[in-house]
Design a protein that fits this description.
The structure holds two protein chains of two kinds. Chain A contains eleven helices and 20 strands. Chain A is of the alpha/beta class. Chain B contains five helices and six strands; from the N terminus they run βαββαβαββαα. Chain B has a six-stranded antiparallel sheet, with helices on both faces. The model of chain B has no long low-confidence stretch (mean pLDDT 92). The chains are: A alpha/beta, B alpha+beta.
Chain lengths: 433, 142
Protein backbone atom coordinates (compact mmCIF):
# COMPACT_ATOMS: atom_id res chain seq x y z
CA UNK A 1 0.00 0.00 0.00
CA UNK A 2 1.10 3.60 -0.56
CA UNK A 3 1.01 5.09 2.94
CA UNK A 4 1.17 8.77 2.01
CA UNK A 5 0.04 9.10 -1.64
CA UNK A 6 0.12 12.91 -1.51
CA UNK A 7 3.86 13.06 -0.83
CA UNK A 8 4.94 9.75 -2.36
CA UNK A 9 3.28 10.39 -5.73
CA UNK A 10 3.75 14.14 -5.87
CA UNK A 11 4.27 15.89 -9.22
CA UNK A 12 8.05 16.32 -9.68
CA UNK A 13 8.03 20.09 -10.19
CA UNK A 14 5.87 20.51 -7.12
CA UNK A 15 8.29 18.37 -5.10
CA UNK A 16 11.27 20.44 -6.26
CA UNK A 17 9.51 23.54 -4.97
CA UNK A 18 8.78 21.84 -1.67
CA UNK A 19 12.42 20.73 -1.42
CA UNK A 20 13.73 24.24 -2.18
CA UNK A 21 11.46 25.76 0.44
CA UNK A 22 12.47 23.21 3.06
CA UNK A 23 16.18 23.47 2.25
CA UNK A 24 16.06 27.28 2.60
CA UNK A 25 14.45 26.93 6.02
CA UNK A 26 16.96 24.30 7.13
CA UNK A 27 19.97 26.37 6.07
CA UNK A 28 18.57 29.43 7.85
CA UNK A 29 17.91 27.41 10.97
CA UNK A 30 21.42 25.90 10.97
CA UNK A 31 23.02 29.30 10.42
CA UNK A 32 21.13 30.63 13.40
CA UNK A 33 21.55 27.67 15.79
CA UNK A 34 24.70 25.68 14.99
CA UNK A 35 28.08 27.45 15.17
CA UNK A 36 29.73 24.65 13.17
CA UNK A 37 27.41 25.23 10.20
CA UNK A 38 27.51 29.00 10.56
CA UNK A 39 31.28 28.76 10.09
CA UNK A 40 31.05 26.11 7.36
CA UNK A 41 28.64 28.25 5.29
CA UNK A 42 30.88 31.28 5.84
CA UNK A 43 33.90 29.25 4.67
CA UNK A 44 32.23 28.58 1.30
CA UNK A 45 30.73 32.09 1.24
CA UNK A 46 27.08 31.03 1.15
CA UNK A 47 24.27 33.03 2.74
CA UNK A 48 20.87 31.43 3.37
CA UNK A 49 19.34 33.73 0.74
CA UNK A 50 21.73 32.30 -1.92
CA UNK A 51 19.72 29.06 -1.85
CA UNK A 52 16.90 29.53 -4.35
CA UNK A 53 16.30 26.12 -5.95
CA UNK A 54 17.21 22.60 -4.93
CA UNK A 55 19.99 22.69 -7.55
CA UNK A 56 21.78 25.18 -5.28
CA UNK A 57 22.53 22.25 -2.98
CA UNK A 58 25.85 21.96 -4.83
CA UNK A 59 26.90 25.31 -3.32
CA UNK A 60 26.81 23.88 0.19
CA UNK A 61 29.71 22.17 1.99
CA UNK A 62 29.82 18.45 2.79
CA UNK A 63 29.43 17.08 6.30
CA UNK A 64 31.48 14.00 7.22
CA UNK A 65 31.38 11.55 10.09
CA UNK A 66 34.40 13.18 11.70
CA UNK A 67 32.40 16.41 12.02
CA UNK A 68 29.99 14.50 14.25
CA UNK A 69 32.91 13.09 16.27
CA UNK A 70 34.62 16.48 16.56
CA UNK A 71 31.40 17.98 17.92
CA UNK A 72 30.64 15.00 20.16
CA UNK A 73 28.19 14.63 21.70
CA UNK A 74 25.74 17.52 21.17
CA UNK A 75 27.66 20.13 19.19
CA UNK A 76 25.68 19.75 15.96
CA UNK A 77 22.24 19.72 17.60
CA UNK A 78 20.05 22.52 16.26
CA UNK A 79 17.49 22.12 19.05
CA UNK A 80 18.01 22.71 22.78
CA UNK A 81 18.26 19.51 24.86
CA UNK A 82 14.96 20.39 26.53
CA UNK A 83 13.29 19.62 23.19
CA UNK A 84 15.27 16.44 22.55
CA UNK A 85 13.17 13.42 23.47
CA UNK A 86 15.49 10.62 22.36
CA UNK A 87 19.08 9.86 21.47
CA UNK A 88 20.46 6.98 19.45
CA UNK A 89 24.08 6.25 18.65
CA UNK A 90 26.09 4.35 16.09
CA UNK A 91 28.16 1.44 17.32
CA UNK A 92 31.37 3.43 17.57
CA UNK A 93 33.58 0.54 16.50
CA UNK A 94 36.15 2.98 15.14
CA UNK A 95 36.18 5.44 18.02
CA UNK A 96 33.63 7.49 19.92
CA UNK A 97 30.05 6.63 19.08
CA UNK A 98 28.14 9.05 16.89
CA UNK A 99 25.31 10.46 18.98
CA UNK A 100 22.16 11.57 17.20
CA UNK A 101 19.20 13.36 18.79
CA UNK A 102 15.50 13.44 17.99
CA UNK A 103 12.84 15.96 18.90
CA UNK A 104 9.23 14.79 19.12
CA UNK A 105 8.81 16.11 15.57
CA UNK A 106 11.78 14.04 14.40
CA UNK A 107 10.35 10.88 15.95
CA UNK A 108 7.06 11.63 14.21
CA UNK A 109 8.83 12.16 10.87
CA UNK A 110 10.76 8.92 11.34
CA UNK A 111 7.60 6.93 12.09
CA UNK A 112 5.99 8.39 8.95
CA UNK A 113 8.97 7.38 6.79
CA UNK A 114 9.04 3.92 8.33
CA UNK A 115 5.31 3.51 7.68
CA UNK A 116 6.02 4.42 4.04
CA UNK A 117 8.77 1.78 4.00
CA UNK A 118 6.50 -0.89 5.43
CA UNK A 119 3.91 0.09 2.81
CA UNK A 120 6.56 -0.22 0.07
CA UNK A 121 7.29 -3.74 1.38
CA UNK A 122 3.64 -4.72 0.93
CA UNK A 123 2.61 -4.09 4.55
CA UNK A 124 -0.87 -2.99 5.64
CA UNK A 125 -2.54 -2.34 9.01
CA UNK A 126 -3.60 -6.01 8.98
CA UNK A 127 -0.03 -7.30 9.22
CA UNK A 128 1.85 -8.75 12.15
CA UNK A 129 5.37 -7.32 12.12
CA UNK A 130 8.12 -9.21 13.89
CA UNK A 131 10.98 -6.82 14.62
CA UNK A 132 14.20 -8.82 14.93
CA UNK A 133 16.53 -5.87 14.63
CA UNK A 134 18.32 -5.02 17.86
CA UNK A 135 16.54 -2.60 20.18
CA UNK A 136 18.56 -0.03 22.05
CA UNK A 137 20.97 2.66 20.90
CA UNK A 138 20.96 1.03 17.44
CA UNK A 139 18.15 2.59 15.40
CA UNK A 140 16.93 -0.62 13.72
CA UNK A 141 14.62 -2.04 16.39
CA UNK A 142 12.83 1.10 17.56
CA UNK A 143 12.67 2.50 14.01
CA UNK A 144 10.74 -0.47 12.69
CA UNK A 145 8.73 -0.59 15.90
CA UNK A 146 7.41 2.96 15.70
CA UNK A 147 6.81 2.62 11.95
CA UNK A 148 4.85 -0.59 12.47
CA UNK A 149 2.71 1.04 15.15
CA UNK A 150 2.16 4.10 12.96
CA UNK A 151 1.00 1.83 10.14
CA UNK A 152 -1.33 0.04 12.56
CA UNK A 153 0.41 -3.34 12.36
CA UNK A 154 0.54 -5.75 15.28
CA UNK A 155 4.16 -5.33 16.34
CA UNK A 156 6.20 -8.09 18.02
CA UNK A 157 9.28 -6.46 19.57
CA UNK A 158 11.55 -9.54 19.57
CA UNK A 159 14.87 -7.75 19.08
CA UNK A 160 17.66 -9.89 17.62
CA UNK A 161 19.02 -13.19 18.86
CA UNK A 162 17.49 -16.13 20.71
CA UNK A 163 16.79 -17.62 17.32
CA UNK A 164 14.81 -20.72 18.28
CA UNK A 165 12.44 -18.64 20.41
CA UNK A 166 12.27 -16.11 17.59
CA UNK A 167 11.14 -18.88 15.25
CA UNK A 168 8.64 -20.29 17.72
CA UNK A 169 7.00 -16.86 18.12
CA UNK A 170 7.07 -16.30 14.36
CA UNK A 171 5.13 -19.52 13.88
CA UNK A 172 2.80 -19.35 16.89
CA UNK A 173 1.84 -15.67 16.47
CA UNK A 174 1.56 -15.96 12.69
CA UNK A 175 3.98 -13.14 11.88
CA UNK A 176 3.42 -11.94 8.32
CA UNK A 177 6.41 -9.57 8.05
CA UNK A 178 9.92 -10.24 9.37
CA UNK A 179 12.30 -7.31 9.78
CA UNK A 180 16.01 -7.98 10.49
CA UNK A 181 19.44 -7.91 8.86
CA UNK A 182 19.68 -10.12 5.74
CA UNK A 183 22.43 -12.22 7.32
CA UNK A 184 20.25 -12.82 10.37
CA UNK A 185 17.34 -13.75 8.06
CA UNK A 186 19.59 -16.46 6.59
CA UNK A 187 20.44 -17.66 10.10
CA UNK A 188 16.72 -17.75 10.98
CA UNK A 189 16.03 -19.72 7.78
CA UNK A 190 18.80 -22.24 8.54
CA UNK A 191 17.76 -22.74 12.15
CA UNK A 192 14.10 -23.14 11.10
CA UNK A 193 15.18 -25.84 8.64
CA UNK A 194 17.23 -27.53 11.39
CA UNK A 195 14.09 -27.48 13.54
CA UNK A 196 12.32 -29.36 10.74
CA UNK A 197 10.12 -26.39 9.74
CA UNK A 198 9.10 -25.60 6.17
CA UNK A 199 8.08 -22.23 4.68
CA UNK A 200 4.46 -23.51 4.83
CA UNK A 201 4.69 -23.63 8.64
CA UNK A 202 4.85 -19.82 8.69
CA UNK A 203 2.49 -17.08 7.51
CA UNK A 204 5.32 -14.82 6.36
CA UNK A 205 4.62 -12.84 3.22
CA UNK A 206 7.25 -10.14 3.34
CA UNK A 207 10.67 -9.36 4.75
CA UNK A 208 12.23 -5.95 5.43
CA UNK A 209 15.96 -6.55 5.40
CA UNK A 210 18.71 -3.97 5.68
CA UNK A 211 21.56 -2.47 7.73
CA UNK A 212 24.17 -4.26 5.62
CA UNK A 213 24.81 -4.75 1.90
CA UNK A 214 23.44 -7.97 0.43
CA UNK A 215 23.20 -9.52 -2.99
CA UNK A 216 20.42 -10.53 -5.32
CA UNK A 217 21.42 -14.15 -4.74
CA UNK A 218 21.05 -13.76 -0.97
CA UNK A 219 17.60 -12.36 -1.65
CA UNK A 220 16.66 -15.47 -3.60
CA UNK A 221 18.00 -17.73 -0.86
CA UNK A 222 15.99 -15.96 1.87
CA UNK A 223 12.86 -15.82 -0.28
CA UNK A 224 12.98 -19.54 -1.00
CA UNK A 225 13.92 -20.66 2.48
CA UNK A 226 11.31 -18.52 4.29
CA UNK A 227 8.62 -18.31 1.61
CA UNK A 228 8.39 -14.51 1.54
CA UNK A 229 9.09 -11.52 -0.68
CA UNK A 230 12.30 -9.84 0.53
CA UNK A 231 12.58 -6.05 0.43
CA UNK A 232 15.70 -3.99 0.90
CA UNK A 233 15.52 -1.10 3.34
CA UNK A 234 18.13 1.64 3.76
CA UNK A 235 18.89 4.13 6.43
CA UNK A 236 21.56 5.34 8.79
CA UNK A 237 21.36 6.80 12.25
CA UNK A 238 23.06 10.07 11.23
CA UNK A 239 20.21 10.74 8.80
CA UNK A 240 17.38 9.27 10.89
CA UNK A 241 17.69 5.46 11.02
CA UNK A 242 15.94 2.90 8.82
CA UNK A 243 13.27 4.33 6.53
CA UNK A 244 15.38 6.67 4.43
CA UNK A 245 14.69 4.47 1.39
CA UNK A 246 12.89 1.20 0.71
CA UNK A 247 12.22 -1.14 -2.19
CA UNK A 248 8.69 -1.43 -3.54
CA UNK A 249 7.30 -4.58 -5.16
CA UNK A 250 9.11 -3.75 -8.42
CA UNK A 251 12.47 -4.18 -6.67
CA UNK A 252 14.21 -1.90 -9.14
CA UNK A 253 16.09 0.14 -6.54
CA UNK A 254 15.00 1.70 -3.25
CA UNK A 255 12.64 4.70 -3.26
CA UNK A 256 14.38 7.44 -1.33
CA UNK A 257 11.90 9.71 0.41
CA UNK A 258 13.36 12.89 -1.04
CA UNK A 259 10.76 15.26 0.35
CA UNK A 260 12.79 14.72 3.57
CA UNK A 261 16.17 13.35 2.49
CA UNK A 262 17.63 14.76 -0.73
CA UNK A 263 20.13 12.38 -2.39
CA UNK A 264 23.18 13.08 -4.53
CA UNK A 265 25.85 10.73 -5.85
CA UNK A 266 29.42 12.04 -5.85
CA UNK A 267 32.84 10.83 -6.85
CA UNK A 268 34.27 9.95 -3.40
CA UNK A 269 37.72 11.20 -4.35
CA UNK A 270 36.91 14.52 -6.01
CA UNK A 271 33.52 15.38 -4.48
CA UNK A 272 32.15 16.07 -7.95
CA UNK A 273 28.42 15.29 -8.43
CA UNK A 274 27.97 12.32 -10.79
CA UNK A 275 25.22 11.89 -13.39
CA UNK A 276 22.24 9.63 -12.67
CA UNK A 277 22.98 5.93 -13.11
CA UNK A 278 26.68 6.22 -12.17
CA UNK A 279 27.94 4.57 -9.01
CA UNK A 280 29.60 6.68 -6.37
CA UNK A 281 29.19 7.80 -2.77
CA UNK A 282 25.66 8.57 -1.65
CA UNK A 283 25.31 12.01 -0.09
CA UNK A 284 22.12 12.98 1.75
CA UNK A 285 20.77 16.33 2.92
CA UNK A 286 18.08 16.42 5.60
CA UNK A 287 15.55 19.15 4.85
CA UNK A 288 12.87 18.49 7.47
CA UNK A 289 14.69 17.36 10.62
CA UNK A 290 14.78 19.64 13.61
CA UNK A 291 17.42 18.29 16.00
CA UNK A 292 20.19 17.11 13.68
CA UNK A 293 19.63 18.21 10.09
CA UNK A 294 22.87 17.32 8.30
CA UNK A 295 23.82 19.08 5.08
CA UNK A 296 25.29 16.97 2.28
CA UNK A 297 26.22 14.18 4.64
CA UNK A 298 28.72 11.77 3.09
CA UNK A 299 27.28 8.34 3.92
CA UNK A 300 30.32 6.36 2.65
CA UNK A 301 27.77 4.02 1.04
CA UNK A 302 28.24 3.22 -2.64
CA UNK A 303 25.08 3.50 -4.76
CA UNK A 304 23.60 5.24 -7.80
CA UNK A 305 20.41 7.20 -8.56
CA UNK A 306 17.56 6.44 -10.97
CA UNK A 307 14.95 9.11 -11.63
CA UNK A 308 12.68 7.41 -14.16
CA UNK A 309 9.21 6.93 -12.73
CA UNK A 310 8.58 3.56 -11.13
CA UNK A 311 5.50 1.58 -12.27
CA UNK A 312 4.33 1.46 -8.62
CA UNK A 313 3.27 5.11 -8.98
CA UNK A 314 5.72 6.59 -6.48
CA UNK A 315 7.60 9.55 -7.91
CA UNK A 316 10.54 9.33 -5.50
CA UNK A 317 13.86 8.61 -7.21
CA UNK A 318 15.45 5.25 -6.46
CA UNK A 319 18.91 4.48 -5.15
CA UNK A 320 20.57 1.35 -6.55
CA UNK A 321 21.26 -1.64 -4.35
CA UNK A 322 24.10 -0.70 -2.01
CA UNK A 323 27.44 -1.93 -3.32
CA UNK A 324 29.39 -1.68 -0.10
CA UNK A 325 31.05 1.19 1.68
CA UNK A 326 33.92 3.42 0.79
CA UNK A 327 35.41 2.40 4.15
CA UNK A 328 34.86 -1.38 4.03
CA UNK A 329 36.23 -1.49 0.57
CA UNK A 330 39.31 -3.69 0.63
CA UNK A 331 42.26 -2.72 -1.47
CA UNK A 332 43.98 -5.94 -2.51
CA UNK A 333 47.08 -5.46 -4.60
CA UNK A 334 45.72 -2.11 -5.69
CA UNK A 335 42.31 -3.45 -6.72
CA UNK A 336 39.12 -2.23 -5.01
CA UNK A 337 37.20 -5.20 -3.67
CA UNK A 338 33.82 -5.13 -1.94
CA UNK A 339 32.71 -8.14 0.12
CA UNK A 340 29.37 -7.97 -1.71
CA UNK A 341 31.16 -8.74 -4.99
CA UNK A 342 32.69 -11.86 -3.49
CA UNK A 343 29.28 -12.88 -2.16
CA UNK A 344 27.75 -12.39 -5.57
CA UNK A 345 30.44 -14.55 -7.22
CA UNK A 346 30.06 -17.25 -4.57
CA UNK A 347 26.34 -17.49 -5.01
CA UNK A 348 26.75 -18.04 -8.74
CA UNK A 349 28.29 -21.40 -7.76
CA UNK A 350 25.29 -23.56 -7.07
CA UNK A 351 26.91 -25.68 -4.38
CA UNK A 352 28.33 -22.80 -2.38
CA UNK A 353 26.69 -21.81 0.89
CA UNK A 354 26.04 -18.12 1.50
CA UNK A 355 28.26 -18.38 4.58
CA UNK A 356 31.75 -17.15 3.84
CA UNK A 357 34.54 -15.18 5.39
CA UNK A 358 37.34 -13.15 3.88
CA UNK A 359 40.78 -13.14 5.43
CA UNK A 360 43.36 -10.70 4.13
CA UNK A 361 47.02 -11.08 5.03
CA UNK A 362 50.32 -9.95 3.70
CA UNK A 363 52.90 -12.47 2.58
CA UNK A 364 56.15 -10.64 1.95
CA UNK A 365 55.00 -7.59 0.04
CA UNK A 366 52.00 -9.28 -1.52
CA UNK A 367 48.39 -9.09 -0.28
CA UNK A 368 46.69 -12.45 -0.12
CA UNK A 369 42.92 -12.78 0.03
CA UNK A 370 41.68 -16.07 1.43
CA UNK A 371 38.02 -16.88 0.95
CA UNK A 372 36.69 -19.45 3.39
CA UNK A 373 33.59 -21.27 2.18
CA UNK A 374 31.62 -23.85 4.10
CA UNK A 375 31.32 -27.31 2.58
CA UNK A 376 27.61 -27.94 2.36
CA UNK A 377 26.01 -31.29 1.60
CA UNK A 378 25.89 -30.20 -2.04
CA UNK A 379 29.59 -29.38 -2.33
CA UNK A 380 30.76 -32.52 -0.60
CA UNK A 381 32.39 -35.20 -2.71
CA UNK A 382 34.45 -38.16 -1.61
CA UNK A 383 37.40 -37.43 -3.84
CA UNK A 384 40.03 -34.75 -3.39
CA UNK A 385 39.92 -34.08 -7.12
CA UNK A 386 36.25 -33.05 -7.06
CA UNK A 387 36.61 -30.84 -4.01
CA UNK A 388 39.60 -29.18 -5.62
CA UNK A 389 37.49 -28.64 -8.72
CA UNK A 390 34.90 -26.82 -6.60
CA UNK A 391 37.68 -24.68 -5.12
CA UNK A 392 38.91 -23.86 -8.61
CA UNK A 393 35.41 -22.95 -9.82
CA UNK A 394 34.88 -20.65 -6.86
CA UNK A 395 38.30 -19.02 -7.39
CA UNK A 396 37.49 -18.62 -11.08
CA UNK A 397 34.09 -17.03 -10.40
CA UNK A 398 35.69 -14.56 -8.00
CA UNK A 399 38.53 -13.76 -10.40
CA UNK A 400 36.00 -13.11 -13.16
CA UNK A 401 33.92 -10.78 -10.94
CA UNK A 402 36.61 -8.95 -8.99
CA UNK A 403 39.64 -9.29 -11.22
CA UNK A 404 42.07 -10.74 -8.68
CA UNK A 405 43.18 -14.25 -7.79
CA UNK A 406 42.17 -15.52 -4.35
CA UNK A 407 42.91 -18.57 -2.25
CA UNK A 408 39.76 -20.56 -1.65
CA UNK A 409 39.69 -22.66 1.49
CA UNK A 410 36.89 -25.11 2.17
CA UNK A 411 35.89 -25.35 5.81
CA UNK A 412 33.49 -27.58 7.72
CA UNK A 413 29.79 -26.70 7.91
CA UNK A 414 28.74 -24.18 10.60
CA UNK A 415 32.31 -23.25 11.47
CA UNK A 416 32.01 -19.67 10.24
CA UNK A 417 30.45 -17.60 13.00
CA UNK A 418 26.78 -16.79 12.42
CA UNK A 419 25.90 -13.28 13.34
CA UNK A 420 22.83 -11.90 15.00
CA UNK A 421 23.43 -8.37 13.79
CA UNK A 422 25.66 -7.16 11.01
CA UNK A 423 27.74 -9.98 9.55
CA UNK A 424 31.46 -9.67 10.09
CA UNK A 425 32.73 -10.82 6.74
CA UNK A 426 36.25 -9.50 6.67
CA UNK A 427 39.23 -10.18 8.89
CA UNK A 428 42.04 -7.92 7.76
CA UNK A 429 45.25 -9.19 9.35
CA UNK A 430 47.35 -6.61 7.50
CA UNK A 431 46.36 -3.98 10.03
CA UNK A 432 47.99 -5.97 12.82
CA UNK A 433 51.33 -6.40 11.10
CA UNK B 1 26.31 -52.59 -3.35
CA UNK B 2 28.42 -51.72 -0.31
CA UNK B 3 27.90 -48.18 1.02
CA UNK B 4 30.95 -46.20 1.99
CA UNK B 5 30.55 -43.27 4.39
CA UNK B 6 32.83 -40.28 3.76
CA UNK B 7 33.40 -37.19 5.89
CA UNK B 8 34.94 -33.80 5.10
CA UNK B 9 37.56 -32.82 7.66
CA UNK B 10 39.47 -29.58 8.01
CA UNK B 11 43.10 -30.17 8.91
CA UNK B 12 42.70 -29.24 12.56
CA UNK B 13 43.74 -31.28 15.55
CA UNK B 14 41.04 -33.31 17.21
CA UNK B 15 38.60 -33.54 14.30
CA UNK B 16 39.32 -37.19 13.48
CA UNK B 17 38.93 -38.05 17.14
CA UNK B 18 35.54 -36.33 17.19
CA UNK B 19 34.33 -38.40 14.24
CA UNK B 20 35.48 -41.62 15.88
CA UNK B 21 33.93 -40.68 19.23
CA UNK B 22 30.64 -39.78 17.59
CA UNK B 23 30.57 -43.14 15.84
CA UNK B 24 31.59 -44.96 19.02
CA UNK B 25 28.86 -43.30 21.10
CA UNK B 26 26.30 -44.42 18.53
CA UNK B 27 27.55 -48.00 18.52
CA UNK B 28 28.97 -47.84 15.00
CA UNK B 29 31.94 -50.13 14.33
CA UNK B 30 34.50 -49.24 11.65
CA UNK B 31 35.51 -52.12 9.32
CA UNK B 32 37.91 -50.33 7.02
CA UNK B 33 39.06 -46.78 6.52
CA UNK B 34 41.40 -44.52 4.66
CA UNK B 35 42.14 -40.80 4.68
CA UNK B 36 42.93 -38.71 1.63
CA UNK B 37 44.50 -35.41 2.55
CA UNK B 38 45.63 -32.11 1.09
CA UNK B 39 47.32 -29.31 2.99
CA UNK B 40 43.94 -27.78 3.93
CA UNK B 41 41.49 -30.60 4.29
CA UNK B 42 41.07 -34.34 4.35
CA UNK B 43 38.43 -36.83 3.34
CA UNK B 44 37.86 -39.75 5.67
CA UNK B 45 36.34 -42.77 3.93
CA UNK B 46 34.98 -45.66 5.95
CA UNK B 47 33.16 -48.94 5.69
CA UNK B 48 31.09 -49.39 8.85
CA UNK B 49 28.64 -51.98 10.14
CA UNK B 50 25.62 -49.63 10.09
CA UNK B 51 26.07 -46.95 7.42
CA UNK B 52 22.63 -45.32 7.96
CA UNK B 53 23.33 -44.78 11.67
CA UNK B 54 26.81 -43.43 10.86
CA UNK B 55 25.48 -40.93 8.30
CA UNK B 56 22.73 -39.73 10.60
CA UNK B 57 24.83 -39.26 13.73
CA UNK B 58 27.66 -37.54 11.87
CA UNK B 59 25.27 -35.18 10.10
CA UNK B 60 23.63 -34.37 13.42
CA UNK B 61 27.11 -33.71 14.76
CA UNK B 62 27.54 -30.98 12.15
CA UNK B 63 29.86 -32.84 9.77
CA UNK B 64 29.60 -32.75 6.00
CA UNK B 65 28.91 -36.39 5.14
CA UNK B 66 28.53 -38.31 1.89
CA UNK B 67 27.60 -41.85 0.91
CA UNK B 68 29.18 -43.65 -2.06
CA UNK B 69 28.70 -47.08 -3.60
CA UNK B 70 31.92 -49.09 -3.65
CA UNK B 71 32.97 -52.67 -4.48
CA UNK B 72 34.42 -54.90 -1.75
CA UNK B 73 36.50 -57.49 -3.61
CA UNK B 74 38.17 -60.67 -2.31
CA UNK B 75 41.82 -60.78 -3.26
CA UNK B 76 43.99 -63.93 -2.92
CA UNK B 77 46.29 -63.19 0.05
CA UNK B 78 49.48 -64.15 -1.79
CA UNK B 79 52.30 -62.16 -3.42
CA UNK B 80 51.00 -60.79 -6.71
CA UNK B 81 47.35 -61.30 -5.72
CA UNK B 82 46.33 -57.63 -5.92
CA UNK B 83 48.38 -57.02 -9.05
CA UNK B 84 46.64 -59.91 -10.78
CA UNK B 85 43.17 -58.53 -10.03
CA UNK B 86 44.01 -54.95 -11.03
CA UNK B 87 45.56 -56.08 -14.30
CA UNK B 88 42.23 -57.76 -15.16
CA UNK B 89 40.55 -54.35 -14.96
CA UNK B 90 42.60 -53.02 -17.89
CA UNK B 91 41.37 -49.53 -18.83
CA UNK B 92 38.98 -49.08 -15.93
CA UNK B 93 39.90 -46.00 -13.88
CA UNK B 94 40.16 -47.00 -10.22
CA UNK B 95 39.64 -43.71 -8.38
CA UNK B 96 40.99 -45.07 -5.11
CA UNK B 97 41.23 -48.29 -3.11
CA UNK B 98 42.00 -49.45 0.39
CA UNK B 99 41.96 -52.70 2.36
CA UNK B 100 39.88 -54.15 5.18
CA UNK B 101 41.48 -54.93 8.53
CA UNK B 102 40.40 -58.59 8.43
CA UNK B 103 40.57 -61.42 5.91
CA UNK B 104 37.78 -63.69 4.67
CA UNK B 105 38.69 -67.36 4.43
CA UNK B 106 42.34 -66.50 3.93
CA UNK B 107 41.59 -63.84 1.31
CA UNK B 108 42.24 -60.14 1.76
CA UNK B 109 39.33 -57.78 1.07
CA UNK B 110 39.94 -54.56 -0.84
CA UNK B 111 37.55 -51.63 -1.44
CA UNK B 112 37.49 -50.34 -5.02
CA UNK B 113 35.92 -47.09 -6.06
CA UNK B 114 35.16 -46.81 -9.77
CA UNK B 115 32.72 -44.49 -11.52
CA UNK B 116 29.02 -45.48 -11.54
CA UNK B 117 29.14 -46.12 -15.30
CA UNK B 118 32.05 -48.53 -14.98
CA UNK B 119 30.55 -50.64 -12.19
CA UNK B 120 28.67 -53.09 -14.50
CA UNK B 121 31.77 -53.86 -16.60
CA UNK B 122 33.94 -54.34 -13.50
CA UNK B 123 31.33 -56.69 -12.01
CA UNK B 124 31.28 -58.64 -15.27
CA UNK B 125 35.10 -58.91 -15.59
CA UNK B 126 35.55 -60.01 -11.97
CA UNK B 127 32.71 -62.55 -12.28
CA UNK B 128 34.21 -64.02 -15.43
CA UNK B 129 37.50 -64.53 -13.57
CA UNK B 130 35.90 -66.05 -10.46
CA UNK B 131 36.87 -63.11 -8.27
CA UNK B 132 34.20 -62.66 -5.62
CA UNK B 133 32.54 -59.31 -4.85
CA UNK B 134 31.20 -59.47 -1.33
CA UNK B 135 27.50 -58.63 -0.86
CA UNK B 136 26.87 -55.56 1.30
CA UNK B 137 25.35 -57.57 4.22
CA UNK B 138 28.47 -59.73 4.40
CA UNK B 139 30.73 -56.69 4.33
CA UNK B 140 28.89 -54.90 7.17
CA UNK B 141 29.11 -58.02 9.37
CA UNK B 142 32.79 -58.74 8.66
Amino acid sequence: MIWDPYHECMDLEQRRELQAHRLRETVARLSANVPFYRQAFRDVDVQPQDIQSIDDLALLPFTVKDDLRDNYPYGLFASPLSEVVRVHASSGTTGKPTVVGYTAEDINLWAECMARSIGCSGGTPHDTLQVAYGYGLFTGGLGLHYGGERMGCTVIPMSSGNTERQIMMMRDLGSTILACTPSYALTVADVAADMGLQPEDFKLKSGIFGAEPWSESSRQAVEEKLGLSAHDIYGLSEIIGPGVANECSNKGGLHIFDDHFVPEIINPETGEVLPDGEYGELVITCITKTCLPLIRYRTRDISCLHRDICPCGRTHPRIGRLQGRTDDMLIIRGVNVFPSQIEHALLSIEEAEPHYQLIVRREGHLDVLEVQVEVSGEIFADTVRRLEEVEKRIAHAIRTTVGIGVEVKLVEPKTIARSEGKAKRVIDLRKEE
Amino acid sequence: MTKQVSVFLENKSGRLAEVCQTLGKNGVNIRALCIADTSDFGILRMIVDTPEVAVRCLRDGGFSVGETSVLAVEIPDVPGGLGGVISLLGNVNVEYMYAFFTTVEGNAVVVFRVSEEEIPSVVEILGRNNIRILPAEDVYSL
